Amino acid sequence: EAGGVDDIASLDIDALRQRVAHCTRCRLCETRTHAVFGVGDLGADWMMIGEGPGATEDQVGEPFVGQAGKLLDNMLRALDLNRASGVFITNVVKCRPPGNRDPLPDEIAACAPYLRRQIALVQPQVLLALGRFAAQSLVQSQAKIGALRGTVHRHEGVPVIATYHPAYLLRAMTDKAKAWQDLCLARDTLRARLAT
Ligand code: URA
């Protein structure tokens, strides 16, 4: 069925990008300016997955371009990555929840086939879940981020490391050391995986 969920898993990257740009699978399409597909290296080993576009991202059409994005860029730099090379950056929901409210379960579910297809096409070797919504949906858990971080989970066989959302870290300096540990765990997990 054209435009349905069933063929999302068969789209190539350009068709997927077009589908997301015109998506009407949930109510967030009514209030968005731009659907935010994601940005980065389509052959990346790393995929960073946030929650959803904020006001700036909705305007610009690119993920993590606001204040939280500056912190994410610092995290990338620490890992020798940048937006053009080594990493693909996207979100659990591609459209901004109004007023930056939390994405609702049905919105996350409606958008999940897109993220699933992005992962299948890019074939990252490690997934870094930024915050509770990314972590919970990739790991299929209701646990809090503090409980999900610190161990290696799996999504379709790909290792998932959960960490705090950069927007949270801007407010909670004390958890920055833990986020750093999470980055090290992800880097070491990737290295071990690429060595085998
Ligand atoms: N926060 C997110 O989770 N994603 C973005 O793209 C921007 C801010």
Question: What does the model show?
Answer:
By secondary structure, this protein is an alpha/beta fold. The chain has one domain: Uracil-DNA Glycosylase, subunit E (3-Layer(aba) Sandwich), CATH 3.40.470.10. It is built from eight helices and six strands, in the order αββααβαβααββαα. Strands 1-3-2-4-6-5 form a six-stranded mixed beta sheet, with helices on both faces. Uracil binds next to loops. Keywords: 4Fe-4S, DNA damage, DNA repair, Hydrolase, Iron, Iron-sulfur, Metal-binding. It catalyses: Hydrolyzes single-stranded DNA or mismatched double-stranded DNA and polynucleotides, releasing free uracil. Belongs to the uracil-DNA glycosylase (UDG) superfamily. Type 4 (UDGa) family.
Q: Secondary-structure map with pairings?
A:
Elements: H1 13-21, E1 39-40, E2 46-50, H2 55-60, H3 67-78, E3 87-91, H4 105-122, E4 126-130, H5 132-139, H6 145-148, E5 153-155, E6 158-163, H7 166-171, H8 176-195
